[in-house]
Design goal:
Blueprint lengths: L16 H15 L4 H13 L3 H6 L7 H15 L4 H5 L1 E4 L2 E4 L12 H10 L7 E6 L5 H9 L3 E7 L2 H13 L6 E5 L11 E6 L14 H4 L15 H10 L3 E10 L5 H11 L2 E8 L5 E8 L3
Parallel strand pairs: 3-4, 3-6, 4-5, 6-7
Antiparallel strand pairs: 1-2, 7-9, 8-9
Helix pairs in contact: 1-2, 1-4, 2-4, 10-11
Amino acid sequence: MEVLEESKLDPCRDRTLHSFLNWACHKFLQAGVASPRLDAEILVADGLGVSRTELMTHPERTLNRVEEQMLCSRIERRVLREPVSHITGVQEFWSLEFAVNEKVLTPRPETETLIEQCLKALAKTSSPVQILDLGTGSGILSIILAKEISQSHVTAIENSTEALEVARKNAARHAVTDRVCFVAGDLMKVDWQGPYHLIVSNPPYIESENLSKCMPEVRQYEPAQALDGGRDGLDYYRFIISMAWKRLEENGWLVLEIGHTQAPAVIALMQGSSRYQDIQVIQDYSGYDRVVLGGAVNG
């Protein structure tokens, strides 16, 4: 990685937080970063171990040379479009912090809609609740559901051993290791066992040919196996929908995150199986189709 020399900085600027944040924003704007000010504040605050509020209330703080070099390295990494979460090592989600790295997908805000629908589907289920999370990645779905439903047990399947290391770390961080069982294996090959009251998944759903068109943060830094949904993006949905009803309790729920154009195709798969009822599509807070769910019919 390029080491930023002092000569490459604006020679007229001072070393205050105010000037450094303005410089970082300028660099991000030039690089095409979508949220330059926010990213600059997060990276600087995290690097200095202070809150973003402190950046605003003490803009006159002067950076020493060690701090400046450390922060410049972070800015250059972001200029290369490395995700902020990879640089800081954490991502906030559901008002909690989760460890993330290049081996797992960084959780997106829209996935909170998936959790909301899981909790709604289970609202009238008698305890204890059995849940299956297919392709758990960093473990966020399993961990949050375990925290939100105290009388629950979650089985979380993940093919990547590196991702499972991150998921186990997150489970320990949030004190749910006794109620989340991580299983290493390909969700298309391992025995799901069961039965479950709810099966949830945010599977790979990007069409193979479109992976190269993703934004640099995704294309260059996130694991392709967690993104590639096959030729039409539906490979995992076909398999999960065909199998889930066999592993669900009567009236148990299958809840799936989808790409925003995939609702008709996923609904058609559910309807075609004749094993799901009350099929619904739910929009996220931006108004995009984000979740498809249906109740199992086992008879």
